[in-house]
Write a structure and sequence with these properties.
- The chain is an alpha/beta fold.
- It has one domain: 3-Layer(aba) Sandwich (Rossmann fold), CATH 3.40.50.300.
- It is built from 5 helices and 7 strands; from the N terminus they run βααββαβαβαββ.
- The strands form 2 sheets. The chain has a 5-stranded mixed sheet, sandwiched between helices.
- The longest helix has 12 residues.
């Protein structure tokens, strides 16, 4: 560990397939200065999807770790598979995590696999933050999504921000 880093947090990024786990991981690495160029799932040049099949199909098959520092804390992001065929890979990764970020797509909303993941995270007592992704995509619907999350996942949700420009490339949190 770097001499000035005092602690490490292992945070898993979990969600249904195509919710944007790898893209979020890439964005966090870029925004924290861990990488100097933003990779893309579509072009097959992300830091965590390194296998030939992963790059060709645009999906994560094996969990991968990417790290960055925030203050004196090392954050290890664990980008996990979203396809239900690879749930055993996700479950193996959960054993080393200090917390999880459960992504919900603003376009697809809560999926059956999202519900399964949250049940698993609750069962093992892993602290979890729900993150709404893809707010900039056509068809994004954040207005009803909070109610959907409360009804289908958990009533214990507090939004930390609002969305302006939803469904457009200019979408942002406010």
């Amino acid at each position: 560990m770097h001499p000035q880093l005092r602690s490490t947090l292992n945070i898993g990024i979990v969600a249904h397939v195509d919710a944007g786990k790898t893209s979020l991981t890439e964005r966090l690495l870029y925004d924290t200065g861990a990488i100097d160029r933003l990779g893309s799932v579509d072009t097959g040049d992300t830091r965590t999807d390194t296998g030939a099949i992963e790059r060709r199909r645009g999906i994560t098959i094996r969990s991968a770790v990417a790290s960055f520092a925030v203050g004196d804390t090392r954050i290890n992001l664990v980008d996990t598979p979203g396809h239900s065929d690879f749930i055993a890979e996700v479950e193996r990764a959960l054993d080393v995590l200090d917390g999880a970020v459960l992504l919900v797509s603003a376009v697809e909303g809560v999926q059956a696999h999202t519900r399964l993941l949250l049940r698993t995270l609750r069962r093992i007592g892993l602290p979890t933050l729900i993150f709404v992704n893809k707010i900039d995509r056509p068809g994004a619907r954040t207005a009803g999504l909070l109610d959907d999350i409360r009804r289908r996942l958990t009533p214990y949700v507090v939004p930390l921000a609002d969305v302006a420009g939803e469904g457009t490339p200019d979408a942002r949190v406010v």
